[in-house]
Design goal:
This protein is mainly α and about 190 residues long. It has a domain of about 100 residues. The protein is built from 7 helices and no strands. α2 runs antiparallel to α3.
């Protein structure tokens, strides 16, 4: 049985639309994080006036890193679980009795699913999504801890020290994202 170009085109459009929908959903949820960093909103109300600006800087960095964490996490785990799902579907299509009369179609679908599974896991590995997810997660946690440090009475007099810590967290995060751990180890 020959598959028409219209069916292939329709299937391709369906895959692209599904990918776009997943991407938009991930971005929506990354921006809508009501359960992460709730205490930081309260901290900003408690900060003394001399550390308010630093607090705003730290909280904004925290929110950025948490949003990035959600995106990298979705990519990493989406590729990981997507690959497992597509692999299982490829095996299932090979065993479906309903397609016994159309072995070429069954084999083509299974091969396509297995190829997509391999591409997902390759994309995740080459893109090193797990490392980028971890770097942003660690940086968000460090920024959160630094925000708590601003509540100490000595924070106003340690402004330079706090700025140095912000720089170190940013440098470590960037090194983690690009994979340069020599800089992280020196901190």
């Amino acid at each position: 049985m020959k598959i028409s170009w219209q069916r292939i085109f329709f299937f391709s459009i369906l895959v692209i639309a599904g990918t776009l929908l997943v991407t938009l959903t991930i971005n929506y949820f990354a921006k809508q994080q009501p359960y992460r960093g709730v205490a930081l909103a309260e901290i900003s109300k408690l900060l003394p006036p001399e550390t308010k600006e630093l607090g705003t800087l730290i909280i904004n960095n925290y929110r950025e890193y948490r949003s990035n964490t959600v995106r990298w996490s979705a990519l990493y785990f989406g590729c990981l679980f997507g690959s497992a799902f597509l692999s299982a579907m490829a095996a299932l299509f090979l065993k479906l009795e309903i397609l016994n009369e159309q072995p070429k179609l069954r084999n083509d679908i299974s091969a396509s699913l297995a190829t997509l599974a391999a591409l997902l896991i390759t994309l995740s590995s080459i893109g090193d999504f797990q490392r980028k997810w971890g770097a942003n997660r660690v940086a968000a946690s460090a920024m959160e801890n630094l925000a708590y440090e601003l509540l100490r009475p000595s924070a106003a007099s340690n402004r330079d020290s706090i700025l140095t810590k912000i720089q170190a967290i940013n440098s470590a995060r960037n090194a983690g994202v690009v994979g340069d751990f020599s800089e992280v180890a020196s901190k």
